[in-house]
Amino acid sequence: MSNTASGLPIGRGFLYLIVAGVAWGTAGAAASLAYRASDIGPVALSFWRCAAGLVLLLAVRLLRPGGARTAVSEPLRRKALRVGVTGVGLAVFQTAYFAAVESTGLAVATVVTLGAGPVLIALGARLTLGERLRSGGAVAVAGALAGLGVLTLGGEDAAVRPWGVLLALLSAAGYSVMTLLTRRWGRGGEVDAASTSVGAFAVTSLCLLPFALAEGLVPHTAEPVRLLWLLAYIAAVPTALAYGLYFAGAAVVRSATVSVIMLLEPVSAAVLAVALLGERLTLATVAGTLLLLGSVAGLAVAETRGAVEPEEEPALV
To answer: Read out DSSP for 131-167?
Structure first.
């Protein structure tokens, strides 16, 4: 299995993304339990998620051999631009999604955000990175989107509201920009995933802080220990760990493939909703999960066996 310019084998990058997608899916269940244990709002939760994740990543970098030093050489100006744009993209992605959920409901917001992501990324990757899927990859993307729709909308009484759809599209755009830029800079072998995660969380935390203050930064709860454990888990696993793996994997795996792998998030969330939150296992849950998993498996074969066409020179610099 070949290594990329950044030194990370594509197969390992694929595995990193799978773990990240599954970990992201656990955040929803943990957030639901946090909402039950307190009056914390979604923006405040997102802020604490990023701020605490930032602290954890900084601690890990300082404690590991070599401290905060990195072997990746990158001009300071370019690094600042990369970290700043990634952090803003992450803030837009998270905040617009939470607003879309509030406006048009969880089902529609999830379908539009995660469904538009692969389409926007595939288009952006073709225009800016010269990446093009063959028919097998296109079928896998279509299957993944169909699975997402069945999994999320199956059996739901979903209400589509235009403002909520626009917010979900804005969220998808933020996610797409974050993914495309991570991939673009990763092709030059100049992306340090740990540095990207730390910088992005710092920028995102600063962007979310005023909105979190307006919503209510410190929650009220009768179960402070339980809430702290939940917040610690959200900061450690679906944030610090998952985003570190995501930025590493997204730098070496094709952008459209990344976007489909991350659709494992609703699969993981659906499984936990049934197992931990007492939600009913439906035919739509099973069918959507199988479609998504089959599509991810198909893209894994395409990525590692060269079933996609060779990369062309980027159209835009």
So the answer is: ----HHHHHHHHHHHHHHHHHHHTT------HHHHHH
